[in-house]
Write a structure and sequence with these properties.
Elements: E1 7-11, H1 15-21, E2 28-31, H2 45-57, E3 67-78, E4 81-83, H3 89-99, E5 103-114, E6 119-131, H4 136-144, E7 165-169, H5 172-176, H6 180-189, H7 198-206, H8 211-214
Parallel strand pairs: 1-2, 1-3
Antiparallel strand pairs: 3-4, 3-5, 5-6, 6-7
Helix pairs in contact: 3-4
Length: about 220
């Protein structure tokens, strides 16, 4: 049996996730869930994203009554190697050079924790991403802006000035770091249906048309 839903608690300090969760038109608060985000030996990037999302979802100490906790973690997968947030500008430049003009994958784990019943579920979304052949000068200017420093793989797909991505296959919001379709699916499976059109949100905010909707795979 699922616990009664009163509000959603986002276990994240990410300004992007905080902004996006507000689009869902439900009661929501945000809190910080601090965990060790280092990969384990031989842990794949996709497994890392799922594990960290689950750990974040249960890392909060004080919980509002009847709150459901949602948490997410995003990892850039370059040939089976995890690229997290850069430690300094030099590492950001290195990551961007490694990603330049080649494909990679972005994995986001999204976890739902219902403390009333101790139910924990997780979904993982993977997007294929192809980067454009940006120049060293563009890398230097982007790193100097400070934007890469809190982002997996040292880039933001939505940064219009740098615009690092040539194309994506599947979910744009996943590359931003918060696949809203996965949030809706987890909540629906636990008994709460979000009364919002997720593909319409992606069109409105990202100018991105979800291919799952065309294939009939998206169900509200």
């Amino acid at each position: 049996m699922h616990g009664e839903f009163k509000k959603l608690l986002l276990a994240s300090q990410s300004p992007r996730r905080r902004k996006m969760v507000g689009w869902l038109e439900i009661p929501v608060d945000a809190a910080r869930g601090d965990i060790d985000e280092q990969p384990r030996p031989d842990e794949s990037p996709s497994a890392l994203a799922a594990r960290l999302a689950l750990e974040k979802s249960r890392a909060l100490d004080e919980l509002p009554s009847q709150a459901w906790i949602i948490a997410a973690d995003t990892t850039v997968d370059l040939g089976g190697r995890s690229l997290g947030k850069p430690r300094d500008p030099a590492e950001a430049e290195l990551m961007l050079r490694q990603l330049r003009d080649c494909p990679h994958e972005v994995h986001t784990g999204v976890a739902l924790h219902i403390p009333q019943t101790q139910e924990m579920t997780v979904r993982r979304v993977t997007t294929q991403v192809w980067m454009r052949p940006y120049t060293d000068a563009e890398i230097a200017a982007y790193v100097a802006s400070g934007d890469p420093m809190d982002k997996a793989g040292a880039y933001a797909i939505q940064n219009s000035a740098f615009a690092p991505v040539a194309k994506v296959a599947r979910c744009y919001a996943n590359v931003v770091g918060f696949p809203l379709c996965a949030v809706a699916a987890l909540m629906r499976a636990s008994g709460h249906i979000l009364m919002v059109d997720i593909p319409a949100l992606c069109r409105r905010h990202f100018d991105y048309h979800c291919p799952r909707q065309d294939r009939g795979e998206w169900v509200l």
